[in-house]
Amino acid sequence: xxxxxxxxxxxxxxxxxxxxxxxxxxxxxxxxxxxxxxxxxxxxxxxxxxxxxxxxxxxxxxxxxxxxxxxxxxxxxxxxxxxxxxxxxxxxxxxxxxxxxxxxxxxxxxxxxxxxxxxxxxxxxxxxxxxxxxxxxxxxxxxxxxxxxxxxxxxxxxxxxxxxxxxxxxxxxxxxxxx
Length: 179
Prior knowledge:
Layout: H1 3-54, H2 60-81, H3 91-98, H4 103-152
């Protein structure tokens, strides 16, 4: 690029570089938001599973299905928190390569590098967001199954359903027999 061409495109390259810098910052913030939501989801999953496990007399098949849904949600949530190889500028490489370059050449290289980094990071971000969404859906299924398992253990008006057909909920109290 000639010095005249560099002078002509310098404002454009500067604007592109500034926009890409801001876009990478917003992408990073979005990733941090997913992390925060994932930590809360993991806390909820632990609490929900412990609550269900502490209940006596829950419907076993529904409870097992709820635990499976919670386990799937937990595994996916942990995979969201797994450290990913996000790309960022290598300060030393930029300084060594472009420290003496004209401003236009530096801005062009920075913009191209940031565009490539954004595309790479966007793919990682999309995959993390999908895993989080599936984890959330699985947690919702677990909640529904837990609720069903708990409701199935009680009859109307909160009375316990008798485990033996024909016996009364107030087992242990027997009517007196007359001789």
